[in-house]
Amino acid sequence: MIELRDVHKRFGSHEVLKGITASVTKGEVVCIIGPSGSGKSTILRCINGLESYESGDIRIEGARVDRDAASIVAIRTQVAMVFQRFNLFPHRTALENVIEGPLFVKKEPWAQAVERGRALLAQVGLAEKADMHPPQLSGGQQQRVAIARALAMQPKAILFDEPTSALDPELVGEVLAVMRKLADDGMTMVVVTHEMGFAKDVADRVLFIDGGVIVEQGGAKTVLNQPQHARTQDFLRRVVHPL
Amino acid sequence: MEKFARDAVEFLPILMSGVALTIIVTLGSLLLSTLLGLVWALMRVSGIGLLAWLSAAIINVIRGIPIIVLLFYLYFVMPDLGITLTALQAAIIGLGIAYSAYQAENFRAGIEAIERGQIEAAQAIGMGWWLTMRRVVLPQAVRIVLPPYGNTMIMMLKDSSQASTITVAELALQGKLIASSTFKNTSVFTLVALMYLTMSIPLILLVRHFEKRAGHR
Questions:
Q1: Contact assessment for residue A142 and residue A163, using Cβ atoms and an 8 Å cutoff
Q2: Is the CB of A50 less than 8 angstroms away from the CB of B128?
Q3: Rounded-to-integer distance, Cα B26 and Cα A240, Å
Q4: In chain B, which residues have their Cβ closer than 8 Å to the Cβ of A83?
Q5: Taking CB atoms and an 8 Å limit, are A87 and B131 in contact across chains?
Q6: Under DSSP, is residue A93 helix (H, G, I), strand (E, B) or coil?
Q7: B 92-131 near A (Cβ less than 8 A)
Q8: Which of A137, A212, B71, B156 is geometrically suited to a Cys-Cys bond with A141, CB 3.0 to 4.6 A?
């Protein structure tokens, strides 16, 4: 349902993506791993049009992603995004954050949006925090609200951009647990992450990106346990044994 | 002191009619400058090059012209172009335009203070530019903008006295007229000063309230 064909992207003179071709089928969980600055996040940001790309083609269920076209709004309601730094709206409560899109983008009736919003907060284990504002919540709780906000749009896929990288280590588990449950429920997910355990357990496929190209891809266990490429081997060694 | 009290009783009614005009000029130009300032600021952050350039140009032109010259232009020059304004209209429009530049810069600072990530989050749930402004950016920008906005209100109250230069009989002009006909300069201008101060104090308290609230969030 997500297709990338020979996508190139540059920031000024620096070419970040040097021809990315990949696809994600419905219900699949794909983890993107790689060193920082390799272009992992940029791929996600191109998929839902937060960044433009110079050449190539990105399609969501056949519709071309073009951030300057009117169709981008429809695409964004189908492909939700969860950010590294949560990016909740601090002036609204947890529940208000969740129902913002349904109410104002999808124009759902208020009562229906609230009912669904509460159910989603319950699903991520935050039913009792509905009326709290983001600054009153821990990082893990904020990220779970952000996941509920993404789910509220009833997306066909969710993009996760390093969803646990800004969290204190003891809060990582609660967010990964919610994501694991989503994957079990059949949600299509593309996850940029440094959590190799999560990738190994949950992902169907893993893409290893370095220097703006896909160096290696394949089944999660294959790539992570028996990496073929020297750069993948080197990266995994450094992630697993940092010292 | 006794003499001042007697003068005060005698002149206050006349000065009060000036106060009424001062308030009308201040409120009118405050409203106009807020609306125009918001338009300039939104043009500036629209992401559309031409609008942003136009807004910057307008703001710089306005900033570069003294208020008094702007007032003269509206009141004395516009009739030559076939547009005749009353002194009160010219005062409100002139001060409104002059202050719109400062309002715009303040609003822009407030808008740009909102984290980029929140705007991306709004876009990611399918919000367009205007919806993002209305639901995410402006509600938060208002809190940031209010304390300096209050200061602008105080400056506008005082600068409304410039309307006297185009014959609007507001507080400063009423004072000048009384003083020049009675020669009681000390009493009259002390009274005028005290009346401006009296009107400023509620605004000063309001700014303090805004600042407290902004600090609380």
A1: no
A2: no
A3: 67
A4: 117, 120-121, 124
A5: no
A6: coil
A7: 115, 117-118, 120-128, 131
A8: A137
Q: Are B128 and A76 inside 8 Å of each other by CB?
A: no
User: Within 10 Å of residue B63's Cβ, how many Cβ atoms?
Assistant: 12
Considering chain A, what is the average pLDDT of its residues?
93
Which backbone phi and psi does A174 adopt, to 5 degrees?
-65, -35
Chains A, B: CB contacts within 8 A come to: 61
Pairwise CA distance, residues B193 & B175, whole Å: 10
Q: Which of A76, A85, A89 sits opposite B126 (nearest CB)?
A: A76
pLDDT exceeds 90 at position A44: yes
**pLDDT beyond 70 at B216:** no
Nearest to residue B98, comparing CAs of B26, B204, B1, B183? B26
Residue A13 phi, psi (nearest 5):
-90, -5
**ipTM, 2 decimals?**
0.91
Alpha carbon distances (Å) from B97 to A22, B45, B88, B101, B125: 55, 20, 14, 7, 37
Residue-wise burial string across B163-199, b where 16 or more C-beta atoms lie within 10 A, e elsewhere: bbbbebbbbbbbbbebbeeeebeebbeebbeebbeeb
Evaluate if residue A240 carries a pLDDT over 80: no
Report the residue count for chain B: 217
* Rounded Cα–Cα distance for residues A153 and B128 (Å): 15
The per-residue pLDDT for range B17-57, each reduced to its tens digit, is 999 999 999 999 999 999 999 999 999 998 899 999 999 99
Token pair in block for residue A66: 């073009």
Contact A24, A43 (CB under 8 A): no
Alpha helices by DSSP H, A5-71: 40-47
CB-CB contact of A98 with A129 (8 Å): no
Task: Identify the residue among A66, A67, A73 best suited for mutation to test binding to B, counting B beta carbons within 10 A and taking the highest.
Answer: A73
